[in-house]
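User: Structure please.
Assistant: Input sequence and predicted structure:
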Amino acid sequence: MNRYEWLLFDLDGTLSDPADGFVNCMNHALVFHDYAPKSVAELTPYIGPPLEHTVSKLTGSSDSKFVRSMVDKYRERYGETGYAENRLYPGIAETLERLSDSESIRLGVCTSKRADFAKRILEQFELHHYFDFVSGGDVGIAKWQQLEKLLKENTINRKALMIGDRHFDLSAASKNGLPGAGVLWGYGRKEELDEHTPRYLFSHPSEILDIV
C-alpha cells in the first residue's frame, strides 16, 4: 500500500521555470511605478513567494494600495504574454505521466499563482489532465491557508505530500500537519529547504517515482 494518496505540486520552480515571465512582468510593474528595472540576477531569488511579499521586499513599501497596484500591473502583462514565457523542467512531463498511471495516487497543484494563470500554463504544456484540481492563491492568501481549505473541504486527505522548491511550501505543509518534500532544481537553496526538515529532497523529477 502506498504511503501517500495525494501528491501536491507547487508550480513555479517545481513543474516549470517561470524566470523569463517573472522578470519581464516585474520590470514592467517597476518601470510603470517609476522604479529602475532590475537584472535577472537581482529578481530571480524572489521567485516563489506570494507576489505581495516580493513587491514589498523589492520596493521597501508595505502600503497596501501601492502593493496592490504593483501586483495588478505585473498581472496585466502576465495575463497577456508572461504566462507563456514559462519553460517546462526536463523530466516533469514523463514523471507526471508515470504517476498518473498509478491507480492509488492522485495529483493536485497548490500554487501561490492565481488559479486561472496556473491552469493556462498547465494547458500550454499539456499537463492539465494529470491533475484532479488546481488550487491558486491571491493577494492576502497564504499557501498554508490554501492547504487548510483543501483539507477542510475534503478535497485532499492527510495522506498527502506537498512538493515544492521553497520553504513556503514546506512550512505550509507543516502548519497543516502534512509532510513536505523539497526539489533542488528550482529556486530554493538546499540550506533553505533543510531548515524545514523535508521528508524527501529530490534532485531530479524521476526520483519522485521511487516513493510511490
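The chain has a mean pLDDT of 95.
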